[in-house]
Amino acid sequence: MALKTLISEERIQTRIAEIGAQIDIDYPDGTLYLICILKGACFFLSDLARAVKRDAFIEFMGISSYGKGKTSSGEVKITKDLDISLEGAHVLIVEDIIDSGVTLSYLTALLKTRRPKSVRIATLLDKPERRIRQVDVAYVGFRIPDEFVVGYGLDFAEKYRNLRDVCVLEQ
Ligand code: PRP
User: Fold this and answer.
1) pLDDT, tens digit, for every residue of 135-150?
2) Has 55 been annotated as catalytic?
């Protein structure tokens, strides 16, 4: 298998700076939680949180989807939940990639039941061709074709998460 750079570290950082500036404009006041969805979003969260200049709190959630890519059952399991109240706060879910949309449609609906002021999504990567559930995404780093990507948090069997670029894994 070979790795081919799709999005360089430099492009990633430039785009994250833009998104961070947009978040500062879009959220003039109120408590803002950046919710990192483990594990893939860890580097995006870490860079995005520092690109935002306003106060922002960081929290982590763990999620696993059953039969991902094979079924539209939409079964999603929370493996690590938040231990804070979201009531009255702005919530920005931070993801590495949106593929079928199953994970995010479930998670958005779940977090809305916790009475936040708003719930939005920021994703580094979006593969719109693969969507089976509609999700509103407020901030997208890059729209990419339907190729298997790794790096900058994304894995193949837990490998390649620590690459600095997003790469296509070619068979
Ligand atoms: C990835 C990604 C999303 C989900 C998106 O997580 O971080 O959570 O898949 O896919 P969907 O749009 O088809 O639901 P993954 O299950 O690979 O876990 P990881 O972040 O721990 O690698």
Assistant:
1) 999 999 999 999 999 9
2) no
